[in-house]
Amino acid sequence: TLNVSSRNVALLVFTAERLDPEAVFLRPEKLAAASSSFRDAPPAPGLAPAASPAFRWEHATGDDGSHRPHSAQVPLPPLPRGLYRVEARGEGVAFAAHLLVSDLVLVQKTGSEQLLVYVADAASGAAVPGARVVMREREAWRSNGKVEVRRGLTGPDGTVTFALSRELQNRSVESLALLGDRVAATPEAYAYRSGEGEPARVHISTDRPVYRPGSTVLFRGQALRTRSS
C-alpha cells in the first residue's frame, strides 16, 4: 500500500513506470555527488502525465470541499519486482516518488574501520550469494564533501565486507544490492571516528580457561588506543 495525504483533492490518479535501477542509482555523476543519496526522490513531474503508463489506478479521497486533510492507505496493483517511478495527480497538483518492489533484504553493519553487508531472500531468509553490492561513503553534513564508492560481490554466506576510509571522521554510509531484476537498498547510516590515532582495541579475558557448572565467572576488559607522537 501507499500512505497518501491530501487536501482539496477529490480524485487521485496514480501511474507507475518501470525504471532501470542502474540508470537511476549508478550513474557516475550521481555516485560522485556529495549531495546525492540512493533515497533521493525522482525529478518533479511535469504538467502532462505519461502518454501510456505501464500501470494506472485511481483513488477517491472522499474530500467534501471543507479544506480538511485526508490520509489513506491506497492499495497497489500487482507490480512485478523492480524499480518504479510512481506519480500521483489530482486537480492541478502532482507528486512523484520511487517505489522499489523486491524480494531481497539488505542489512549493513557499520564499525569504525569496516562495513559488513548481508543480502538475503526476504521470503526464506536464505543468504543470497553473487549479488553486486555498491557502497557509498561520504562526509556527513557537507554538500561538497569527499565521496568514496566501493563495489563487491556477496560470498556463499551472503556477506561482503568493505574497508572504510581512514580520512573521513563523520561519515554517512549507504549500500545498494543488485541481482538481475532484484534490488535492495539501505537508508544512510552514520559512522564516526575520533580522529585521535588508531581506533580503540578492546580485549576481554576471563580468570580461568575452564569452569565447573555453577562456578562464578570473573572477567576483565582493556581498551587500548595508540596515539601518534
Task: Based on the model shown, name its key terms.
single chain; 229 residues; mainly beta; five-stranded antiparallel beta sheet; four-stranded antiparallel beta sheet; 2 helices; 48% strand
Structural notes for this entry:
4% of the residues lie in helices and 48% in strands. The chain contains 2 helices and 16 strands. Strands 9, 10, 12, 13 and 14 form a 5-stranded antiparallel sheet that branches. A 4-stranded antiparallel sheet has the order 3-2-5-6. Strand 9 (132-139) and strand 10 form a beta hairpin.
Question: What oligomeric state best describes the polypeptide chains here?
Answer: single chain
Encode the helix/strand succession as letters.
EEHHEEEEEEEEEEEEEE
Shape descriptor: elongated
What class, by secondary structure content?
Answer: mainly beta
List the uncertain runs. none
Mean pLDDT score = 87
Compute the CA-based radius of gyration: 24 Å
Cα distance, first to last residue? 58 Å
Number of strands: 16
| Separate helix tally | 2
Strand content: over 45%
The helix fraction, in percent, is under 10%
